[in-house]
Amino acid sequence: MFIYYVSLISSKLFKLLSYFCSLNNQILMLNIAIVCGGDSGEHNVSVKSAGQVFYHLDREQFTPYLIKISKTGWVCHIEEKDIPVNKDHFTLLVDGKTISFDVIFNAIHGTPGEDGKLQGYFDMIGIPYTSSGVTTSALTFNKSFCKKVVASMGIKTANSIHLFRHTEDPVYAIWEEIAFPCFVKPNNGGSSVGMSKVNNADQLEAALEKAFHEDDEIIVEDFISGRELTCGVIRSEGKVISFPVTEIVSKTDFFDYEAKYQDGLAEEVIPANISEDVSERCMNISKELYEKLNCRGVVRFDYIYSNYEFYFLEVNTVPGLSEQSIVPKMVHAYGWTMKEFYTRMIYECINNTSKPTPNP
């Protein structure tokens, strides 16, 4: 109850601050590029996330532009026209006027927005963005490398093996290291795209083919029986905040892509029906990882809780923000509106860089 009232007071203070900022909107209105799409199986989810950001963004402080990025082009849809992005300095030319951007709101799940590629580009041209930096993004996107770093911090992880497309006899390598049942999944990616639960050796070949269809690297992990818990973390006003711990109860064999995005196939219990002590441990581990991995923006950490121990599964540095996604539900449970949440993300991004100047 104490945490709830602290959150409520903080929320009201933030709204008051936002009000005074809005009084000065003639002096400084920020152009926000909401980038979405990408080149992975998470493209459609990313577009849905960006649509929600666009809808909720505070029009008294920000002018949002929705920009889709893919191998076929970088475009902004304005008044029934697709305006190409000038990649030299990430600007738009609209009716003879050049539009530049103060902040990039990164809503790309998967490559190139979650693996550090776009982050490097924006660093080079000097535009701040709402997600983690190049090194953190590249590391956390690689599940195997990230698990090794997390394990070095003393946090438990499932036994796993990292395989490549060129690995000789991957089935034998799995037999040597991994027990059944196990999970086979792309090493780089999210939303459970290309992921399979393998109960016996007869299912391995199909699972490997499915995972290698999405990535040149795969990770195979021991199955750990337990409860799936997840915790969102964000830095706001210089303070690291954890959202209520959430339990994911899948009605399918595991929390796959369909369970995540089809209504009725999974239930998110917020807050999770766990003791205060277990919840506190989960939040503390998540905040520790957020700090030590040098995360920025909103991040979600996934775990299996088994035999009183937390086993780290993965970290999502650009988690879903669609209506079906978990983070918006966490935000509401914490006591923030989505408008306030996105405003906090943008201002935290600005505070980590030099102060923006108005666009001409």
Which consecutive residue ranges, at least 5 long each, have pLDDT under 50? 22-27, 355-360
Spatial shape: globular
Strand residue content: 25-35%
Nearest-integer average pLDDT? 88
Descriptors for this entry?
single chain; 360 residues; 18 strands; 5-stranded mixed sheet; globular; alpha+beta; disordered C terminus
Could you describe the 3D structure shown?
This protein is an alpha+beta fold. It has eleven helices and 18 strands. It has helices spanning 2-23, 43-56, 117-125, 134-141, 143-152, 170-177, 204-212, 257-261, 276-292, 326-334, 338-351; strands spanning 30-37, 62-70, 73-78, 81-84, 92-94, 97-99, 103-106, 156-157, 160-164, 182-186, 196-198, 217-222, 227-236, 239-242, 246-250, 266-269, 299-306, 309-316. The strands form four sheets. Strands 8, 13, 14, 15, 16, 17 and 18 form a seven-stranded mixed sheet that branches. A five-stranded mixed sheet has the order 4-3-2-1-7. A hairpin with a 2-residue loop joins β3 (73-78) and β4 (81-84). The N and C termini lie far apart (47 Å).
